[in-house]
């Protein structure tokens, strides 16, 4: 799916160690094609965000600050390039392949601790955040501009939550037509990929997506369980989630070690991403690990590293890039 021209790692999980891992993977290019500038929201609106708070959005929203990378992507999807982004360098490393950063936004600190001074200096019309911060953290931000909090993820309905967040951003910025066009385009592409998977004889293929980290010299694995966004996406095109364990209630993420991977069925494909600054623990640290090398999946060569820079907690563009890369890896064209 081509980049549209449209007109018009999580902060709260079930346990402290999950939070640390999520933030690591949600880590810290080439310029995208020119996009038409959207019209500023013509009318003031009041929307209810993920906190259940009614947020009054003024008319004429143009300058927006995004404190999470999925918020950056949703804004760009509806035609708004944020003037401020938390951890710009991190976004360019972790997310820019799937959803290249538009414009030249000001870096406003980290996603965990954004700079109030930097945000205030931009005098934004709107600040977009994601659920997971302590409720008290919004006070200083709300003194600068209205704060719209997205749900970010919900293991009860990961794809529906992603689309609902995109629609909320669009409602707040007067860009609902752009959001609906993006969702329709994504759904049409899913249908195309489903046909490709079926024709390749890969329907029902078991896939386990996971991230790997080094922590104190030990390898820790974060598998994406049922309820995570990625399995929901690849199941929608005909694959099956091969990870049997459970994940947290928001992001559907689990934790295991190398021994835990023996729970995988023999025919499961392991899929993962890394980035240039991160050590590829699957290729490097596990190269001489007897348990890893003894896995039928590893012995059969069913371990796939996908291209860097696809954000695994993103929106329609990131999911499109991920699914395209997944299908290309499992069903390469002659």
Describe this structure in words.
- Residues 63-334 form the Fe/B12 periplasmic-binding domain.
- The protein has helices at 16-25, 69-77, 88-94, 116-122, 138-142, 158-173, 176-199, 229-235, 290-294, 296-299, 316-330; strands at 45-48, 54-57, 64-66, 84-85, 106-107, 126-130, 147-150, 206-215, 218-223, 240-241, 269-272, 303-305.
- The protein is α/β, with parallel strands linked by helices.
- It folds into two domains: 16-175, Nitrogenase molybdenum iron protein domain (Rossmann fold), CATH 3.40.50.1980; 185-330, Rossmann fold (3-Layer(aba) Sandwich), CATH 3.40.50.1980.
- The strands form three sheets. Strands 5-4-3-6-7 form a five-stranded parallel β-sheet, with helices on both faces. Strands 8, 9, 10, 11 and 12 form a five-stranded mixed β-sheet that branches. A two-stranded antiparallel ribbon has the order 1-2.
- Helix 2 (69-77) links the parallel strand 3 (64-66) and strand 4.
- The protein starts with 15 loop residues before the first helix and ends with a helix.
Provide the fold topology.
Layout: H1 16-25, E1 45-48, E2 54-57, E3 64-66, H2 69-77, E4 84-85, H3 88-94, E5 106-107, H4 116-122, E6 126-130, H5 138-142, E7 147-150, H6 158-173, H7 176-199, E8 206-215, E9 218-223, H8 229-235, E10 240-241, E11 269-272, H9 290-294, H10 296-299, E12 303-305, H11 316-330
Parallel strand pairs: 3-4, 3-6, 4-5, 6-7, 8-10, 8-11, 11-12
Antiparallel strand pairs: 1-2, 8-9
Helix pairs in contact: 2-6, 6-7, 7-11
Protein name: Iron complex transport system substrate-binding protein
Family: Belongs to the bacterial solute-binding protein 8 family.
Signal peptide: 1-24
């Amino acid at each position: 799916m081509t980049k549209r021209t449209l007109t018009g790692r999580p902060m709260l999980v079930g346990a402290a160690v999950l939070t640390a891992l999520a933030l690591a993977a949600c880590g810290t290019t080439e310029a995208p094609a020119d996009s038409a500038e959207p019209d500023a929201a013509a009318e003031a609106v009041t929307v209810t965000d993920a906190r259940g708070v009614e947020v009054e959005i003024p008319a004429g929203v143009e300058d927006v600050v995004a404190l999470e990378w999925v918020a950056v992507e949703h804004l760009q999807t509806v035609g708004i390039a944020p003037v401020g982004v938390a951890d710009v360098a991190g976004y360019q490393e972790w997310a820019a392949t799937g959803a290249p950063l538009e414009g030249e936004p000001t870096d406003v600190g980290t996603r965990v601790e954004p700079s109030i001074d930097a945000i205030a200096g931009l005098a934004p019309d709107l600040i977009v955040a994601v659920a997971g911060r302590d409720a008290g953290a919004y006070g200083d931000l709300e003194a600068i501009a209205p704060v719209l909090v997205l749900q970010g993820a919900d293991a009860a309905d990961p794809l529906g939550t992603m689309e609902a967040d995109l629609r909320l951003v669009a409602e707040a910025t007067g860009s609902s037509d752009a959001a609906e066009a993006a969702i329709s385009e994504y759904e049409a592409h899913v249908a195309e990929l489903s046909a490709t998977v079926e024709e390749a004889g890969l329907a029902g293929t078991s896939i386990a997506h996971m991230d790997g980290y080094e922590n104190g010299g030990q390898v820790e694995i974060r598998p994406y369980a049922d309820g995570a966004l990625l399995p929901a996406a690849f199941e929608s095109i005909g694959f099956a989630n091969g990870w049997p364990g459970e994940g947290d209630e928001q992001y559907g993420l689990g934790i295991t070690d190398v021994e835990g991977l023996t729970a995988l069925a023999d025919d499961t494909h392991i899929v993962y991403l890394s980035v240039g600054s991160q050590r590829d623990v699957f290729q490097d640290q596990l190269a001489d690990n007897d348990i890893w090398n003894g896995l039928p999946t590893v012995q059969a060569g069913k371990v796939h590293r996908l291209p860097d820079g696809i954000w695994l907690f993103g929106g329609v563009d990131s999911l499109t890039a991920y699914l395209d890369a997944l299908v290309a890896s499992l069903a390469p064209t002659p």
